[in-house]
Known about the structure:
By secondary structure, the protein is of the alpha/beta class. The protein has a single domain (4-234), classed as 3-Layer(aba) Sandwich (Rossmann fold), CATH 3.40.50.1240. It is 31% helix and 17% strand. It has seven helices and six strands, in the order E-H-H-E-H-E-H-H-H-E-H-E-E. The protein has helices at 16-19, 34-46, 61-74, 97-100, 104-111, 124-141, 153-164, and strands at residues 4-11, 52-57, 78-80, 146-151, 180-187, 190-199. The protein has a six-stranded mixed β-sheet, with helices on both faces. Strand 5 and strand 6 form a beta hairpin. Helix 2 (34-46) runs parallel beside helix 3. The longest helix has 18 residues, at 124-141. It is globular, with a radius of gyration of 17 Å. 42% of the residues are buried.
Amino acid sequence: MADATIVLLIRHGENEYVATHRLAGRTAGVHLNDKGRAQADQLVSYLADQPLAAIYSSPLVRCIETATPLAQARSLPLIEDSAFLEVDYGAWQGADLRELAKLEDWRKVQQTPSTFRFPGGESLREVQHRAVTGVEAVRHQHPNQVVAIFAHGDVIRTTLAHYLGVPLDLFQRIVIQTASVSVLSFHDGAASILGMNYLAGLPKFEIKPPDAGTLPGQSTGMTDAAAVLADAQSVGHA
């Protein structure tokens, strides 16, 4: 993969908080459920063709459990990095999303997230800043290599919004399902999105960085097979 650094942003697998529409946040001991463990195993074969040089993960156990089968299959160390830690949701941690949706603050976090701070927790601007800072550090550490980062839904969505040049107030439009893979390419210092929300079990994605003559914003070669399939019931923050 000459002259390009590829970063795979991978959301953790399903857990009972996702399955029951609760906001896990940084709650300790949130393990993958049976479906999540199956998703983690599927990622090993789904990413078999990718020449991974390193694997990074949020320190939370649901990300560690998702990343571990892949790390073991590749005989790579799993590097924990707090830059990719879940959002600090403060007083909202552990809450039922259906109950949160009744709050006035829910409307704010949906419509103007760039100005919102979770009660007693982080602002989404802070989340985006630390996650993007983490991605930048990783990609400079691994020039012209393919690396995987296991993280959380809102962390990945705010990061993708940054590299898409999308205002943070629109990041809620990005769908990132459990155990999905989103692909960033860094070529000659310019970032491109090669695909978002790829799911194991669907046709494999093709990494095809821009040609030297491709300008930022032009087509980057995402295959038709990589079209996003959004299942609203499996989209969650936890």
